[in-house]
Amino acid sequence: MKRIPEKCIENPCPSCIAGDVAITTDGRGVVAARDVVVGDRIPGAGEGEWCEVVAAVRVADKGKVFGNFTDDHFVVAPADAPSGTHVVRASGTGAPSREADLVNIATTCPAARATSGELFTPLSTVFCKQLTWDEYLPLYGALMRIVAKTGGFWFDPSTYGSAPGARPGSPTGPPSSPALPGRLSWMERLPDICDTMRSCTARGARCSEFERLAGGWVRQYLPPAQYEQVRRSYPRLGDPDARRGNLLQDVDPRSSSSSDGQEGGRGAGGWRLLLLGPLLVGGLL
C-alpha cells in the first residue's frame, strides 16, 4: 500500500469521507469506508441498487470532518426533500467536528449510500462550486465514461503535482498562473473546467472551451504514466475540432458515444441506465 500523509495539512484539505463510516458491501457485509476496495459493490440511492466501486483512495491519516464528511464534500439530499427533487450540496459544518482518517470512494452510480442512509458522491466544491441535480447527472455520466477508459486515478489527490509545463510534442496548454495563497496550483483551474464541462454535458454549450481547458490541465498536472494512459485513450486530447479521439467524444451529448446510455430518466431508478451502456463498453461492469 502506498504511503499516505499522517495528517492533512493542505489548504483546502482534500474533500473526503471519514474512514470509519460504515458501508454495506455485497458479499463482505458491513465494513469501514477505509476498507472498501475497487470491485466491491455497495448500495446506491435506489431501492435494491448496487454500485460497483471504481476508486477507493486513502487520502490522509487525519483530517477534520463534520459528522462523516469534510465540509465541502458533495452529498445528496433524497427526493423527498422539501424541494421535491434530489439536491446536490456541500456537506457543510452543521454536524459536530472531529478528526478522522480520510478516504474517497467513487462508484458507477452518481451517489452511494452509507449504512447510516447518507448519500454521498466522490466530488466536492474543489471541482464544482455548485451543481443542480439535472446538471450533476450528465456530468457524472461523462466522468464515468472517461474513468472507464483511463482508470480511477482522477479521484486520488496525490496523483497531481505542480506544473511541469507543456510536454514536448504536445500542443502548448494555457499559460500557467500562480496559485492563490494557501491553495494548490492544480486545484485552481478545476472550477473553470467544471463550469465548461457541465455546460457541455447539460446543454451542448462551451464544449470547445472545455476540451481546450481540460487538455491543457491534463498536460500540465498529470504525471507521465497517467498522462500516457489518457493520451492512449484520447490521442487528440485538447483538440476541439477533432472528430474522434478527444474528450468530447465522451462528454459532448451530441457525440454518438457520449449519448449512449443517456436515456432512462433523472430519478434514482434511471441512474444505472444513464451509465450502464458506456461502462459495459468500457469493461468496468
Features:
285 residues; alpha+beta; Endonuclease - Pi-scei, Chain A, domain 1; four-stranded antiparallel beta sheet; 7 helices; 10 strands; disordered N terminus; disordered C terminus
Write a structural description:
The chain is α+β, with helices and mostly antiparallel strands and 285 residues long. It has a domain at 9-124: Beta Complex (Endonuclease - Pi-scei, Chain A, domain 1), CATH 2.170.16.10. The chain contains seven helices and ten strands. The chain has helices at residues 133-150, 190-203, 207-221, 224-233, 248-251, 256-259, 271-282; strands at 17-18, 22-25, 29-32, 41-43, 50-66, 73-77, 87-90, 97-107, 112-113, 119-124. A hairpin with a 3-residue loop joins β2 and β3 (29-32). α1 runs parallel beside α7 and α2 packs antiparallel against α3. Mean pLDDT is 81; it is low at 1-12, 163-183 and 261-285.
Describe the secondary structure blueprint for this structure.
Blueprint (H helix, E strand, L loop, with lengths): L16 E2 L3 E4 L3 E4 L8 E3 L6 E17 L6 E5 L9 E4 L6 E11 L4 E2 L5 E6 L8 H18 L39 H14 L3 H15 L2 H10 L14 H4 L4 H4 L11 H12 L3
Antiparallel strand pairs: 1-8, 2-3, 4-5, 5-8, 6-7, 6-10, 9-10
Helix pairs in contact: 1-2, 1-7, 2-3
